């Protein structure tokens, strides 16, 4: 206790904050990357004017609530309220569109990664660059605004991501970690925005009518790119007040480069080296696989981004993750309450997930689609969640639960199949996110879906906020360690993982289920047309 108090009071700690799609989390770690305290708050995106968005007011109220809870948690654990940290960093959902004018005012509501209205821009830029530009990337949103003749375009002075925005307000610096930046615009092997593609983009925008033409070259309104470990500014007095209006937290804390949730997920699972992948499951689900060599061709289903150190990564990003499972868990909890049994949310999730283990390996003929939003990988502009079965299907809780879990991994496995056909080798997948808190359920079924061993560590549920804290701690390391070596030698050397090998019966059953799932995608298309 005394040692921990001394460490906290001396600021020999690192803080990570991550703004996820449904929760804002904070994690404070000590010199050995052990967790000393945490905080969290819930938030939710809104579908307003046919746009998925969050208000900037909710950003700051959520961060303040989260930081206050962390400070209270540390005090409850160790009897001391932290007033400073050795370093800190911010992570958030990648991609999207945050555009500011020269007066630092937001020009249009934040357009998140979940929006799928940028197909024309995505297609044109992908052809122009000969490089996949997904619908959710910042440059696709920016160019789509031009194609739609939005009058705010000439006023844009700065484009950034959610993590970049928060970091900017805390430090005054317009910078971004390379992993997050690689989801705004393509980067090259030197961890810089690709100059040839920038020139092509500027060339086509010069042809636009003057009232929607940008006033500056794209490179002048994008953040400065920094790789992991670099100094990225200091918490200002104004920034400290934004984090902690009570005044406990003092300015002067150094910050590491802000990163995207994909990068912190890689760090949190030690998946930053070739032949290692990781899967992050939340509102969306995505896999990241570090590449040994470039892909042979452009795939619209595969993003090419980077690790926080700038190494190339193949990313399979699915817009829809565990939200539909959460909706069913909420319904079952309400049903339990109607019967007079007040079950906790965690109890319902455990019961629902564990039931899946006794289900038929092919889901008993049940199909589930978790599409709340559009899904670019399966070429669907919108989503219509549904459960479908034939009269002869074996409808029971176990098969229902298994079909729901399979649906979370369905689109992901289609993308992973493309990587396998490209010859991308993956020895182990490391998984994290709340879905993996229930032992040996989602982990086992993910192993079947990707036919690869899946490992889950003791920080799986903490995920990105812990990973961001580790990146902050890495920025204090003044040696010449690479990020890969730092994680291997100083962070994960004593940590344990549980590894589940693919079960042949599960693999075979999932394959049969996926064939039906793929054939049934036409039902989704019909539902989108029928249900407006």
Automatic annotation (TrEMBL):
GO MF annotation, one: kinase activity
Biological process annotations from GO: D-xylose metabolic process
Keywords noted in UniProt: Carbohydrate metabolism, Kinase, Transferase, Xylose metabolism
Residues in Carbohydrate kinase FGGY N-terminal domain copies: 14-243
CDD domains linked: ASKHA_NBD_FGGY_BaXK-like
Gene3D superfamilies: 3.30.420.40
Domain Carbohydrate kinase FGGY C-terminal positions: 278-475
Keyword Kinase on entry: yes
Nucleus in keyword set: no
Matching SUPFAM superfamilies: Actin-like ATPase domain (SSF53067)
The family this protein is said to belong to: Belongs to the FGGY kinase family.
Protein name: ATPase
Organism: Nesterenkonia natronophila
High-level lineage: Bacteria, Bacillati, Actinomycetota, Actinomycetes, Micrococcales
């Amino acid at each position: 206790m005394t040692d921990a108090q001394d460490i906290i009071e001396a600021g020999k700690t690192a803080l990570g904050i991550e703004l996820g799609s449904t929760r804002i989390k904070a994690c404070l770690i000590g010199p050995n990357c052990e967790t000393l305290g945490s905080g969290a708050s819930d938030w939710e995106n809104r579908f307003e004017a046919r746009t998925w968005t969050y208000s900037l007011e909710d950003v700051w109220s959520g961060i303040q609530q989260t930081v206050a809870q962390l400070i209270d948690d540390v005090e409850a654990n160790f009897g001391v309220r932290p007033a400073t940290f050795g370093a800190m960093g911010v992570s958030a959902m990648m991609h999207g569109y945050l555009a500011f004018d020269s007066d630092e005012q937001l020009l249009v509501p934040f357009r998140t990664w979940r929006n799928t209205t940028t197909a024309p821009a995505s297609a044109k830029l992908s052809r122009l660059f000969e490089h996949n530009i997904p619908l959710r990337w910042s440059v696709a949103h920016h160019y789509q605004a031009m194609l739609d003749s939005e009058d705010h375009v000439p006023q844009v002075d700065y484009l950034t991501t959610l993590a970049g925005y928060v970091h900017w307000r805390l430090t005054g610096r317009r910078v971004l970690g390379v992993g997050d930046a690689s989801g705004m615009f393509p980067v090259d092997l030197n961890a810089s925005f690709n100059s040839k593609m920038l020139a092509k983009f500027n060339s086509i925008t010069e042809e636009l009518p003057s009232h929607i033409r940008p006033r500056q070259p794209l490179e002048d309104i994008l953040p400065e790119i920094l790789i992991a470990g670099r100094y990225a500014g200091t918490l200002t007095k104004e920034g400290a007040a934004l984090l902690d209006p009570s005044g406990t937290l003092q300015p002067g804390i150094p910050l590491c480069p802000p990163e995207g949730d994909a990068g912190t997920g890689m760090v949190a699972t030690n998946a930053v080296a070739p032949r290692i992948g990781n899967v992050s499951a939340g509102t969306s689900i995505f896999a990241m696989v570090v590449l040994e060599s470039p892909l042979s061709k452009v795939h619209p289903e595969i993003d090419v981004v980077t690790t926080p150190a700038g190494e190339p990564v193949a990313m399979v990003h699915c817009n829809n993750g565990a939200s539909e499972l959460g909706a069913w868990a909420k319904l079952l909890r309400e049903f339990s309450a109607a019967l007079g049994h007040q079950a906790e949310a965690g109890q319902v999730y455990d019961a629902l997930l564990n039931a899946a283990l006794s289900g038929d390996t092919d889901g008993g003929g049940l199909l589930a689609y978790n599409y709340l939003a559009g899904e670019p990988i399966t070429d669907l502009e919108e989503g219509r969640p549904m459960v479908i079965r034939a009269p002869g299907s074996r409808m029971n809780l176990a098969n229902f639960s298994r079909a729901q879990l399979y649906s979370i991994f369905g689109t992901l496995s289609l993308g992973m199949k493309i990587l396998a056909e490209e010859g991308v080798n993956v020895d182990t997948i490391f998984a994290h996110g709340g879905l993996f808190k229930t032992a040996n359920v989602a982990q086992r079924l993910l192993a079947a879906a990707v036919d690869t061993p899946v490992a889950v560590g003791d920080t799986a549920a903490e995920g990105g906020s812990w990973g961001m804290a580790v990146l902050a701690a890495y920025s204090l390391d003044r040696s010449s360690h690479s990020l890969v070596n730092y994680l291997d030698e100083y962070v994960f050397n004593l940590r344990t993982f549980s590894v589940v090998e693919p079960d042949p019966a599960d693999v075979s059953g999932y394959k049969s289920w996926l064939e039906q799932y793929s054939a049934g995608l036409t039902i989704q298309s019909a539902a989108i047309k029928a249900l407006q």
